[in-house]
Design goal:
Blueprint (H helix, E strand, L loop, with lengths): L13 H9 L9 H11 L6 E4 L6 E4 L12 H8 L1
Length: 83
């Protein structure tokens, strides 16, 4: 099969074809690398926020904004809690 975007040839192995048929999923029309690139474009970008550790109040960077309700620990406090 040739990719519709890059014209690169790609194969579908029998196990993959079986999976598509069993789950009523259309056969891919794009090369794996192109499909992966498209998936990455749909993901949220990682943004780091300044926040304080909820235990020791040390300044940290995290992917959780201040508005989120999750409890966020610095690495040291997390390790003390977990180990």
């Amino acid at each position: 099969i040739k990719c519709q975007e890059s014209n690169r040839p790609f194969k579908i192995i029998p196990e993959e074809l079986k999976f598509y048929r069993e789950n009523n999923i259309p056969i891919p029309r794009f090369h794996y690398d192109i499909r992966y690139k498209h998936r990455l474009l749909t993901k949220n970008k990682r943004i780091l926020y300044d926040r304080k550790c909820d235990k020791c109040k040390k300044d940290i960077k995290t992917t959780y904004s201040k508005e989120r309700l999750e409890i966020v620990y610095c690495e040291d406090c997390y390790n003390k809690e977990m180990y």
